[in-house]
Amino acid sequence: MIKRNEVLRKYLIISILLLISIIIISGCQKKEEEEEKKGKLLNKFGTGAEVVSSPVVDKNDVYFGSVDGRFYAVNLKDFKIKWFFNTADAITASPAIDEENVYIASLDNNFYVLDRKSGKKLWSFDSKSYLRSSPLILDNMVVFGSDNSYVYALNKKNGKKIWSFKTGSTVYSSPITDNQRIYFGSGDANLYSLDKKGRKVWQFKADGLIESTPAIADKMVIFGSQDGNIYSIKTKDGSLAWKIKAGGPVRSSPKISGNIAVVGSDDHKIYGIDINKGQELWTYETNDRVPGAAVIKDKIAYIGSIDSFIYGLRLIDGKKVWSFKLNGPTSSTPSIKGNDLFIGSHDFNLYRIKIE
Q: How far apart are the C-alpha atoms of 220 and 310, rounded to whole Å?
């Protein structure tokens, strides 16, 4: 009888412990579920076609182009149009701005500089070929690539050509700089490093064309390629530091915060990479291609997908903690001002979404 009571007592203790464990696990799961937040739509601005250009936001306005051929300045206060500028073809590249002007590239072959306040054209440059590369402002120059295989550096005040550099194919990739050199990819599968005078310092050959705009961190330049690899190249001499194989072409441009790079792929995945070790930290799988780049705020990477969702992923482990569903696919890279996220969609709209 005593043994039976002891056995019953043991079973009772085990049952109580199991019940406590279930309650704790359930509470943790509930807490984790509660951590994921949903974005709140604040405004939408409609255009006449897809918005694949990534917006640029300043204190008062948001600037972006549309496949309808127009470039828009929209007032942040009421989200109504401030001015627009007509080009003769689609605008897919993202603009650049400085204190006075807006710099835009169009598929009508022209590069335009507009007054930020009025949208008045100050000058234009005819490249004789499509322009899909977003401009870089560097010192007194504006630098961009063209489908005619050239990269141009123009005087940003008057549009006069300072130099040009010929690659072996189209240049969709947008140039970036570490203030010493200029880096960009080409359809000839090379990543190029130029000095400020447009002279080649080195080139690195990948196994596929490069649409991805590179990112710079800790003496490395990181980019994706259509060959399905994410590369890290040493800025000093153009030698390979590491590469990581994705499951599909990588058109997305890496976004770096600390030692982590976030980049999307046509394999539907978003990758978190330790750039110091050259190791994959995590992946998050969406339901379609991820051609756009991320923007990072408060250790959360916000990135859109062709599946129409914008995902907020925790940098440290890739856990989804935020999301918002658009009414159409997006290949636009978001911009953030304060707690508001701005992104374009193939549903012809520019969205303004509250992230907190």
A: 28
